Amino acid sequence: MSILKKIPNNQVIYISGTPCTGKTTVSTKLNDYFKENDFNTCFIKINDLAIEKDLVLGEDPDKLYKVIDIDKLNLILNEEIDDFLNKSSNCSDFSSDSSSDSSNIVIVEGHLSHLCEGADKMIILRLNPKELESRLKGRDYSDSKIKENIEAEALAVCSAEAYEIYGENASEIDTTNKSIEEVIDMIINIISGQLESPVGSIDFMDWFLN
After folding, report:
1. Distances (CA, A) of 97 to 55, 88, 101, 120
2. Residue of 120, 152, 116 whose CA lies nearest to 17
3. Each residue of 131-181: pLDDT tens digit?
4. Rg (CA), the chain
5. First and final CA of the chain: distance in angstroms?
6. Crossing angle for the helix pair 129-138 and 143-154, nearest 10 degrees?
7. Which residues on adjacent β-strands are paired with residue 144?
8. How far is CA 61 from the centre of its chain?
9. How far apart are CA 207 and CA 129, in angstroms?
10. Interatomic CA distance for residues 180 and 47, integer angstroms
11. CB 17 within 8 A of CB 126
12. For 154, what's the count of Cα atoms within 13 Å in the CB-facing half-sphere?
């Protein structure tokens, strides 16, 4: 029996994590994989959704990032998901090339997703802080933003916040030294019930303490 057959219909998967842990790349490839295997897919980039729906309240003057109305974002996100699952429509990136009896799957990508409700599986991508620092520097993040993000990663901030909402339905994956294909395989095994990778199974505190 194919592992894909073990994935329940109408699955909603959120993928979050600290910036530069690979969310966008992994989520895009995962969505493509499901489309290639005849799933009806809905792929939502949550940051784009927040901007499209005019949910930006302003900019934090100290940290210089956009402040989003999370309550409204949560409501609008779940309305989009419900519309897709009930009607197979109203999704910003909707694929329905397969038959009408194909399974539906929703992938929501972005750093804000773990602050929203509605996922069947909440997956946090993790990355060793040393590697994360290198990636952040490569994207020209400021020194203060690099410090803030690698400390947040070492302290598992995203995982802790996800666990507050999702409990045992939150998982985390260490992407350090893993290929995109390996990460996707782990995600598929998690959502099909073949792999447990609970919050707390990854520990980068040694880096923080050193």
Report:
1. 32, 11, 11, 24
2. 152
3. 999 999 999 888 989 999 999 999 999 999 999 999 999 999 999 999 999
4. 17
5. 47
6. 150
7. none
8. 26
9. 7
10. 22
11. yes
12. 16
Q: Are 179 and 38 in contact (CB under 8 A)?
A: no
Q: Assess contact for 143 and 49: CB atoms under 8 A.
A: no
135: its two tokens: 């990636």
Q: Where are the beta strands (DSSP E) in 18-73?
A: 40-45, 56-59, 66-68
Furthest C-alpha separation in the chain = 55
The size of the chain, in residues, is: 210
Residue 131 token pair: 């590697």
pTM exceeds 0.70: yes
Residue written as token pair 């020194």: 143
Grouping H, G, I as helix, E, B as strand and the rest as coil, residue 95 is strand
pLDDT tens-digit profile of 5-27?
889 999 999 999 999 999 999 99
- Give me the amino acid identity at 150: I
